[in-house]
Amino acid sequence: MQLGIPKQLWVEWHDLNEPEARDVILEMEDGAMYTALYVTFGYLERQMMLSHDLSRQVPDAPPVYHAVLDTPHVIVPNLDRDTIEDSIDNLLALETFESVFTLVTEKEDQPQAAVPAPTTGKRATQEIAAVFVSSVLLVEDDDTTTVA
Hints:
The chain is built from 4 helices and 7 strands; from the N terminus they run βββαβααβαββ. It is of the alpha+beta class.
């Protein structure tokens, strides 16, 4: 499936207390918007430490370092804009983009039967994406950081 060309990229802090994770929103030329979570190895290490610390407090649970990722994550060595853009280009070229990025708008020509369950009609996340884009707290744009 041909996705087209990226038009606009937003990189947002996933959590102001988490310097090693970014929410990435990508708008394609056709208006479709996608989102994914980008993290570094430091983020994964912290998740493993949290799991270990939590398991130490639970009786009969052996303390183990592990991280469980319930949503797709793109793991990169750093969160520089160039690294994120290069990663997106790579995912598009390898045709693996849609396995990591979540479509948050419904394509006009997509029949209802083609919309993945459990959505009905317009994707529920379309409204969430609109709010997400319009109420960005902290966005990195090129080399500057702005507060909305």
